[in-house]
Amino acid sequence: MASPEIHAKCGASNAYRYLACTASPTFEAQFPASTSIYAEEGTLAHSICELFVKTHSDADAMAEELRSLQQHKLYQPEMLTCAKIYCDWIMEKALGYTNPPAIMTEQQVDFSDVVPEGFGTCDCVMIGDDALNIFDYKHGKGVRVDAVGNPQMRLYALGALAKYRPLYGDTIKKVRMTIIQPRISADPSEDEMSVDDLLAWGDRIHPIAVEAFNGPGTFVPGEHCKFCRGKAKCRARANVNTALEDFASCVPMGRVPADEPKDNASRMAMGLQKALTDSEIGQLLTRGQFLVSWYDDLKAYAQQTILDGGEIPGWKVVAGRSVRAFHDTDAAFQTLIKAGYDEAMLYDRKPVSLSELEKRLGKKKFAELLADQIDRPMGKPTLVDESDTREPYNSAAADFGGVNANVYANV
Ligand code: SF4
Q1: Cis upstream peptide for 216 (omega within 30°)
Q2: Ligand 1: residue whose CA is nearest its atom 7
Q3: Tens of pLDDT along 344-400?
Q4: Which among 83, 173, 180, 381 could bridge 130 via Cys, Cβ 3.0 to 4.6 Å?
Q5: Domains of the chain (ranges, CATH numbers)
Q6: Are 224 and 20 a contacting pair, CB within 8 Å?
Q7: Residue 109 β-bridge partners
Q8: Each residue of 115-144: pLDDT tens digit?
Q9: Residue 231 Cβ contacting ligand 1 at under 6 Å
Q10: Residue 176 near ligand 1, beta carbon < 6 Å
């Protein structure tokens, strides 16, 4: 099985963070790296993906090795579906070349020319015509990872370029970077740039990466704090989120909309408060969004500290709402049946969910049989900041109700 990645101080996966906050690698080194079942699950899924690509034309070899991977305690049938999507995508790309491209899986790459001691593993490298392609499989289904402008992918591409340029020379003119995350979307995310632009990017970030590696660096809190190991204990982040005077500037004191009386006596007589303007609400929402995630991080840290036997003055951990359950449902139901109750009263007959059915049938068969019977209603309206890449909510389309999935396939 692919061995879990050994993390460099300044690796590729945390580049988005240390390129924004050069203090983060040194600061978070004092907090232990946590391992999770998800990481182990991801390693197994990667191994199955690698096997599919390596043995796609040799079913016997695949079946033999797959049997052993399927013995793993974390194996789930969904991993086969994901590996197939990953492998199909790579093979489809390979067919687009004039001559069959070279395909290498699990390639160790070194980008230490750009980031001190920087190295990593490319899930798959494909070289053909004038292009070097790198493919990265993501097993997570929480946050969609975009390939566009992604520093992790660019560093892998620089490492792959350093490895293969001595063999292929200047024939490689461009790099393509693809992230395949089948549990979130069947459509991979892709980015492409010329070799010259990639090398120029590497030159630009080199001094920042050196500062991050050498430390102490500069603390710059922001959205990138989300996966920092020091996010709950970081004073810089706390300072930004407790600077309440910043909020004051969002709502200038005494400002009253032009069409309302300015003096308090008239306002009081009319029962008017100084209502917030929509512009002030926009600023407050922007200012407050990091505050909420920071507060949640503090709570998670405090709860774990108390559960581990520590103390957070003024706080304790209690048991949450408890949900009643039979300790043996079969035995409980038998008691009711013996007491004369009809079995039909004990079970609900529920349809399997659409996603589960797709998993059981396989995407192809599912689409073949049911594509024209699927509606994709617009999702619930969700407030996000304007940097979000999704299309604005369309009330008219939502009012239209159950639209056919084919019509709104790209919504
Ligand atoms: S929490 Fe944010 S500001 Fe603090 S070290 Fe980590 S990335 Fe930097």
Answers
A1: yes
A2: 225
A3: 899 998 999 998 898 888 878 898 999 999 988 888 888 888 888 778 888 776 665
A4: 173
A5: 15-214 (3.90.320), 243-307 (no CATH)
A6: yes
A7: 120
A8: 999 999 999 999 999 999 999 999 998 888
A9: yes
A10: no
